[in-house]
Design a protein that fits this description.
Layout lengths: L1 E2 L5 E10 L2 E10 L1 E10 L2 E10 L7 E8 L5 E9 L1 E9 L5 E8 L4 E9 L5 E8 L4 E8 L5 E7 L4 E10 L2 E8 L5 E7 L5 E7 L5 E8 L5 E7 L3 E7 L6 E8 L4 E10 L4 E8 L3 E7 L4 E8 L2 E9 L6 E7 L11 E5 L21 E11 L10 E3 L2 E5 L2 E2 L12 E8 L4 E7 L2 E2 L1 E9 L6 E7 L3 E2 L3 E7 L6 E10 L4 E3 L3 E4 L9 E2 L8 E11 L5 E10 L5 E6 L4 E6 L1
Antiparallel strand pairs: 1-32, 2-3, 3-4, 4-5, 5-31, 6-7, 7-8, 8-9, 9-30, 10-11, 11-12, 12-13, 14-15, 15-16, 16-17, 17-29, 18-19, 19-20, 20-21, 21-29, 22-23, 23-24, 24-25, 26-27, 27-28, 33-34, 34-39, 35-38, 36-37, 36-40, 40-41, 40-42, 43-44, 44-45, 44-46, 46-47
Length: 566
C-alpha cells in the first residue's frame, strides 16, 4: 500500500479484521503528519480516510492502536496536536464516517494513547503515556460509548516509561508498561472498572528488559513477550494471581531476534506465535510451550520487519503489516501486508512456508522474578475537546505475490524504448483464458484499457506474449495486465511503473538463459523463487543459478521476469 503523492511516508501500526476485510490505522507524512485509517477487501482499498485537526496550522496527528467494537465500529487511538500534543481517541463506522473524537490534555509533555479495547458493557478503555524532560508517566482512561471520559488516571512513578498494551478480562483492565527500575523491567498494572489500581508488579532481572506484547492465556492469566538486552526473546506466563517467580520460555538463537510485531497464544494447543524480525528480515515463529519445540518458522525476504498483526475471527488467517527494504521510484515509502495460516505458516493462497535455514532456534525453560511494588495514581485536571475532521486520503494497493494470475503468469516486464514501451509477459499454463487487456494509468488509480491480446484458451506449455505502447506517457506511467477468462471473470497482475527518463533499458538478470550452477548478476536487488513460490535466493544482486533445470521467477523492485536454467 502506498500514497499517491511523491515522497509520502506511510506507517500502519494498528490492524483489525471485520469479516474478511482488513482495517488499518497509522499515519502519513507529507509535509505534515496526518492520522490515517483505511479498509481493504481482498487487497483492494474500499475507503481510506485522513484525520486531521480542523485548525489548519495544527495538522499533526498519528494513530498507534485500533480495536473493532461489538457492532463493528472502528476505534483508533494516538495523538493529535492543538497548542500541545494530546491523547486522542476517535470512533468511525464501517464506511469510514467519523462518529466522534475526543482529545485529552492531562498535563505538560508529549501525550498519546497507544492501545484501546472495548469492554463487554460497551465502555472503552485506552492506555498511553506522557513524556517530559523529567520523567515518563502512564495514562489510563475510560470512556463511555459516546466518547465522554468517565475517569482518567496517571501513574507518575519516576521509573515508568511507556505503555505497550492493555487487555480487559474478568472485570479487570490489565496494562503492560515499561520501567527503568532494576536496569529495565516489565510493569504489570491491574485496574478495577472504577479506576482503582488493584495490583502493580515488576517483572524482570537486572538486565535491560523491554515489554513487547500481551494477550490472554484463555484461563484468566496473561501471556507476555519481552526482549532482554533487545535481541534475546522470551515468553512469560502470568497466572491470575502472580507469584514471586513466573514460568518463562527462552527463545535462543545466535542471530539478532526482535519479535516486536505481534503475539498470539492458542489455548487449545498451548502454542505461541510471535512476529517481528530476525537479522533485519521480517520473520514469524510458532513454538509449543509444553514441549519446548519450534512448530514452524517463516522468513519474509521482501520485508525488513513486521509492525503489527491481526487474527481473523475464525482463527484461520493472520494478516501482518511490514516495511520493505527501500523507497519506491516516486520517493514514497509503502507498507506491505502478508497473509498466512497461523497453524502452518503457509501463505493463504497456497504458497509453501519458507523456513529459515541459516541457524537453529532452541526453546528452553527458565523463570523470571515477579515482585509486587505499590504504585500511586493521580487524577489529573483535564482539558477535553473535539477538533478532528475526516477527509479522503488517496492510497493504492498492488498484489505482490509470486504468482498473480490463474493462468500461472511467469513473467511480466516493461521495457522503455526510444519511441514506445514494450510490455512482455509469459505464462506456464492457461485454463479457459480468453484475452489479456493492457491497462495504463498516469497516477496509479484511474485505469484505462489501451490494448488487448488474445489468450491461448488452454495450454500447459510456456507461451510468450508482447504488446507495444506506441504512445507512452511522457513522464511516469503505470501498467497492469487484466486476464479475462471465457466466463468474463478476470484477475489483475502486479503494477509496473515506467519512468521514461530513468528506467534502464537493460535485463533484470544476466546471463539468461543460464547453465545450472553458473553465476548470475542482477541489475538491482532481486529475489529468486521457483514456480511454487519457494524462496531460492535473495534479496541480492549476485547469486548462483539453481542446479535443477527449469523456469524460475525473478522479482525486482518494479518488475518480475523469468530465469531459464538449462
Amino acid at each position: 500500500m502506498e500514497t499517491q503523492l511523491p515522497g509520502g511516508f506511510l506507517l500502519l501500526d494498528g490492524l483489525g479484521i471485520i469479516g474478511t476485510d482488513v482495517i488499518a490505522c497509522g499515519h502519513v507524512e507529507q509535509g505534515f503528519r496526518f492520522g490515517a485509517v483505511c479498509r481493504m477487501s481482498n487487497g483492494v482499498i474500499e475507503w481510506s480516510r485522513k484525520l486531521r485537526n480542523s485548525t489548519p496550522y495544527y495538522a499533526n496527528a498519528f494513530y498507534q492502536g485500533l480495536a473493532i467494537t461489538s457492532n463493528s465500529d472502528i476505534l483508533v487511538v494516538g495523538q493529535e496536536v492543538l497548542n500541545s500534543p494530546n491523547c486522542h481517541i476517535a470512533r468511525l463506522d464501517q464506511t469510514g464516517a467519523l462518529l466522534w473524537s475526543t482529545s485529552l490534555n492531562v498535563g505538560p509533555g508529549q501525550q498519546y494513547f497507544s492501545d484501546v479495547v472495548e469492554a463487554p458493557d460497551g465502555s472503552i478503555y485506552a492506555v498511553g503515556g506522557v513524556e517530559s524532560s523529567a520523567e515518563g508517566d502512564v495514562v489510563v482512561a475510560r470512556f463511555d460509548p459516546g466518547g465522554a471520559p468517565t475517569w482518567v488516571r496517571v501513574l507518575n512513578e519516576p521509573d515508568l516509561q511507556y505503555s505497550r498494551g492493555l487487555l480487559f478480562q474478568n472485570d479487570t483492565l490489565h496494562v503492560l508498561a515499561a520501567t527503568a527500575t532494576n536496569g529495565g523491567d516489565l510493569a504489570l498494572l491491574a485496574f478495577a472498572t472504577d479506576g482503582t489500581l488493584v495490583r502493580s508488579h515488576l517483572v524482570g532481572t537486572s538486565a535491560d528488559e523491554r515489554p513487547l506484547a500481551m494477550t490472554s492465556d484463555g484461563s484468566g492469566g496473561l501471556v507476555i513477550s519481552f526482549s532482554r538486552d533487545y535481541y534475546n526473546m522470551f515468553v512469560v506466563r502470568v497466572p491470575p494471581v502472580p507469584g514471586t517467580s513466573l514460568p518463562t520460555w527462552s527463545i535462543d538463537t545466535p542471530m539478532q531476534l526482535d519479535m516486536v510485531g505481534g503475539l498470539y497464544f492458542d489455548p487449545a494447543t498451548q502454542e505461541c506465535m510471535l512476529l517481528g524480525n530476525r537479522a533485519w528480515m521480517a520473520y514469524a515463529l510458532r513454538i509449543a510451550l509444553p514441549t519446548n519445540t519450534v512448530v514452524w518458522e517463516r522468513s519474509f525476504p521482501d520485508l525488513y520487519s513486521f509492525f503489527s498483526m491481526a487474527l481473523s475471527n475464525d482463527g484461520t488467517t493472520v494478516v501482518a503489516s511490514g516495511g520493505p527494504f527501500g523507497f519506491l521510484p516516486n520517493g514514497s515509502y509503502p507498507v506491505e501486508f502478508a497473509q498466512f495460516d497461523p497453524l502452518t505458516g503457509n501463505d493463504v493462497f497456497g504458497g509453501p512456508c519458507a523456513p529459515w535455514s541459516a541457524s537453529p532456534i532452541s526453546i528452553s525453560d527458565t523463570s523470571v522474578p515477579c515482585t509486587m511494588v505499590p504504585m500511586s495514581t493521580r487524577i489529573p485536571s483535564l482539558q477535553a475537546y473535539s477538533g478532528i475532521e475526516v477527509q479522503d486520503l488517496f492510497l493504492t494497493t498492488n498484489y505482490c505475490g509470486p504468482i498473480v494470475l490463474p493462468v500461472e503468469l511467469i513473467s511480466w516486464t516493461a521495457q522503455s524504448l526510444d519511441q514506445s514501451v514494450r510490455l512482455s509477459w509469459s505464462t506456464g499454463s492457461e485454463h479457459n483464458s480468453d484475452r489479456f487487456i493492457i491497462e495504463r494509468s498516469a497516477e496509479g488509480s484511474d485505469w484505462s484499457p489501451i490494448g488487448q491480446v488474445a489468450a491461448a484458451g488452454h495450454s500447459t506449455v510456456l507461451r510468450e506474449y508482447a504488446w507495444d505502447d506506441l504512445e507512452p506517457l511522457s513522464g511516469v506511467g503505470y501498467y497492469r495486465l487484466r486476464q479475462v477468462d471465457a466466463d468474463g471473470s478476470g484477475t489483475l497482475s502486479d503494477v509496473l511503473v515506467v519512468d521514461r527518463s530513468t528506467l534502464p533499458d537493460r535485463p533484470l538478470v544476466h546471463p539468461n538463459p543460464v547453465a545450472p550452477g553458473q553465476p548470475v548478476t542482477a541489475s538491482e536487488r532481486v529475489i529468486l523463487r521457483d514456480l511454487s513460490g519457494r524462496l531460492i535466493a535473495g534479496p541480492t544482486e549476485h547469486f548462483t543459478a539453481p542446479q535443477l533445470p527449469g523456469v524460475y521467477v525473478v522479482h525486482g523492485a518494479m518488475r518480475i521476469d523469468r530465469l531459464v536454467v538449462r
